[in-house]
Amino acid sequence: MNITINNTKLLFLYRLSIFKLFTFKTNNEELKTIVKALNIKKRKNRIKYVYEEAIKVINNYYYMDLCKFKDNKCIVQRKNKSNTINGCCRTCPILTDKGCPSFNLTCKLLYCKTALNNLKKLKMSDINILKCLSLTKRLILKTDFYSTKEEVIDDLYYGILLYGFRSFYREIKNKLKHH
Fold this sequence. Notes:
Elements (H helix, E strand, L loop, with lengths): L1 E3 L6 H4 L8 E3 L6 H7 L4 H19 L13 H5 L25 H4 L4 H4 L18 H9 L5 H10 L1 H18 L2
Parallel strand pairs: 1-2
């Protein structure tokens, strides 16, 4: 059975298990990625697709290097003649000398005022594909800094309880690593 989607108002319903029996379609170009996500019936595959599409939206919105890195220093570090490198990311435990190995959605939405330089800041609520996720999963996304893409997808898949334990574990591990 087919269901045609013309807006995002009922997405909270379409995520329910009963709707796995249905196929969604739309004529609205803006909703095509959402419909594609809803038609992915395996939950982990859907989460991965939503995550990757959201990353594409962010990359297309911020089409340039906002931090304006030069010699591993962001615009703020160069302006302040700071001895530190790697901008805001310098505190990230997974950062390597080659840069960021992760495609973390949360980190991609974190930009300082100087980097944004009068651009409108993209918020999670501006990314329509994220409406395919529950409010709990969107809360996890808002706070899952400094994790690999795979860790974030696992956090979204297994839920808030595992996310809480994993966050606590990562925090302790990072504290021990820096002492």
